[in-house]
Specification:
Blueprint (H helix, E strand, L loop, with lengths): L1 H16 L8 H7 L4 H4 L18 H12 L6 H8 L4 H13 L12 H10 L10 H4 L19 H13 L9 H6 L4 H11 L5
Length: about 200
């Protein structure tokens, strides 16, 4: 119960302190996002599992990530340069709005990961105090746009696993109040692979 309340209050704090990025124009963003297609696909669906699908992702979450890359709060050799090359904060919002407007990707779960992955995603793991992913990302992986909790449904399992490992190691540290780092540090490689394989097949 106490853990659940911690996540609720953290989520409320995130909402209260959030800056709105909902003012973007998807049509303007379409032209601005042309250079993104090389990695993320013309319709925001990446063919390389190392790179995330952006289509249908929450605009607020996408804008936050671009701002974090622009200010080096999130580090990636390619994305830091790409984000800093965007002319203005207004253009960031337009790009985010464009990708948010696209039909989300659909994926398939890795069959051997589903049983254990479902348990972790929906119920967590009490033996190692892993919180349920569904508590923030929703039972179908739809995320929570107001809190900038990302959509996970249909995301590449390889990308999800890589991000969980990055949070676990501290390589990625742009999560509010260390929420994801606190979860990921309790996860084994097997936990990560199982839940990532399950998430890939979620349908929002």
């Amino acid at each position: 119960m106490k853990k659940a309340l911690v996540f609720v209050f953290a989520g409320l704090a995130m909402i209260a302190s959030a800056v709105s990025y909902a003012g973007g124009d998807a049509e303007k963003g379409k032209a601005l996002a042309a250079s993104c297609a090389a990695c993320h696909g013309a319709e925001g669906v990446s063919t390389n599992p190392d790179w995330p699908n952006l289509a249908g992702q929450g605009a607020g979450y996408l804008a936050k990530q671009l701002y974090d890359y622009r200010t080096d709060k999130r580090i990636n050799a390619v994305m830091n340069g790409m984000a800093k090359g965007i002319a203005s904060d207004e253009d960031v919002e337009h790009i985010a709005a464009y990708f948010a407007s696209l039909p989300a990707a659909t994926g398939e779960a890795e069959e051997e990961m589903v049983e254990e992955g479902t348990l972790i995603y929906k119920g967590g793991k009490t033996s190692t105090k892993i919180a349920a992913c569904a508590s923030c990302h929703g039972p179908t992986g739809s995320g929570v746009e107001a809190a900038k909790f990302p959509k996970l449904a249909g995301q590449h399992s390889k990308y999800i696993a890589a991000q969980l490992k990055a949070f676990r190691s501290g390589e990625r540290a742009n999560d509010m109040n260390q929420m994801m780092r606190d979860v990921a540090k309790r996860m084994s490689d097997t936990d990560i692979e199982k839940v990532a394989g399950y998430i890939a097949g979620l349908q929002d």
